[in-house]
Structures are given as structure tokens and as C-alpha cells.
Known about the structure:
single chain; hydrogen ion transport; ATP synthase subunit a; F0_ATP_A_sf
Amino acid sequence: MSESPQVLAAEFPPGVESFDYGSLIPGLEGTIWETAFTKITLLVWLSVAILIVLFLVAYRKPQIVPTKGQWMAESVYGLVRDNIAKDIIGAQGVRFAPYLTTLFVFILLNNFWGIVPFAQISPNSHIAFPIVLALSTYVLYIIVGVRKKGVGRYIKDSIWVPGAPGWVQPILVPIEFFQVALLRPATLAIRLFANMFAGHMILLVFTLGGVALWQAGGLGLKVTAFGSWAMAIVMTLFELFILILQAYVFTLLTATYLQSSVSEEH
């Protein structure tokens, strides 16, 4: 006899399988294209479409006295330009402001899906998307550094530790190379992924835990279910803070890496 849904909910808590979604296109199940267009892919494309439309509408007819849409777009751009690009990179930061703003709003919107009803998952909780974002930043970081200093000087400034004795450089250079070539892009991606992954798991635990307690029967368990759902609401509000913070931190670290590429010092 098969177990009831109540028993299954109690015995099988949310796991990594909660992040797997089948194809939204019928007939692709069981093929190599099964994951080509899933709910996660749809959310990413929606983010792209929403941002394009919002900024095009906001700047379609720019006015000296801005409309609400123009004011919001200019406020976001001004925030990133003045508080991240200029503060971290300096005067040269203005030319990176468009990229940093795009990065910030794209990550923010993708993170925001994690608390939107019926979506309720951030594409950034799948490691593939943070990896692509981190690699985009890393490639730009290298291109900017090479154009600024040339290949030879850029490599030297990246892995050579100024002021350290010559005899210790053979030890420090591999460490610096490992940090620049692997740790920077990896930590950039993993930080964003881990926070979105953990946030989704926490919300699943409290939400589905409440469902399991309610279905288990008994007045005491039903009362406890309301407590679990209340915690889900509290954690949703906390997740709202985290998703904004992670978009800001990713953009801030990107600006920090770009600053090290354009600066004269190591």
C-alpha cells in the first residue's frame, strides 16, 4: 500500500530536488532538451524583458522635471554611479556605471522572484546563473586591466607582491595567482548562489512544514502549523533584506575588482 501524502510530507523534507523543474515545453521530457526551457529559464527571460521595458519607457521622453518612472530609473542609476562606481573606482568609475547598474538591477530582480507568489524561487539559487554573472565580471576585469597596463605589467601587478622580499616571492606568487584566477570569480558566484539557495530552502522548510503539521491532524499540531507559517512570513521579510543586500554586495565587489584593474598600484 502506498503511503499517504501526509506521511510522505513528514518523511521527505525539502531537498535539492526542490530546485529541479521540468520543461515548460510539452514533449521534451526524457530528452536532452528537458531542461532547455524551465520555470527558472522563464523567470530569467521575464527579468530581462521587464528591465528592458522599464528603462525604455522611463527614458522614452526624458523631461527636465522627471516623471515617476524616469525618476525611479535615474535614482537607481545615480545610486550605483555615486555610491558604488565613484566611491570605489574613483573618477573613472563613471564609465563603468552602466554595467554596474545593469548588473545590480538584474541580480536584484532575479533575487526578488524568490519571494514572489507562484514564482517563489530565485534563478540565482541555481549555480549556473551566478557563474555566468561572475565570469562576465571576471572577463571585464581582465580586459580592463590588460588595456590599462598591457599584458606583461598586468600579470606582474596581479601576482607579484610589492615590498615582499625576493626569497618569499616564489611562495606568494602561486598564492596570488590562485586568488586572482580562481578564488575571486568562484567566491563571487558562490556567495550569491549560497545565499539564494539557503533562503529558498528556509522558506520551503517553514511553509511545507506547516502543511505537514496541518495535515498530520490533532489540534496541537494544527496550532503549531500556524507558528510555522508565521515563521515563513518573518523569514520572507528577512529574505527581502538579504536579496537586496546580495545584489549590492555583488555589484560592490565587481567595482572593487575593476578598481584594482585600473589603479596604478597593486
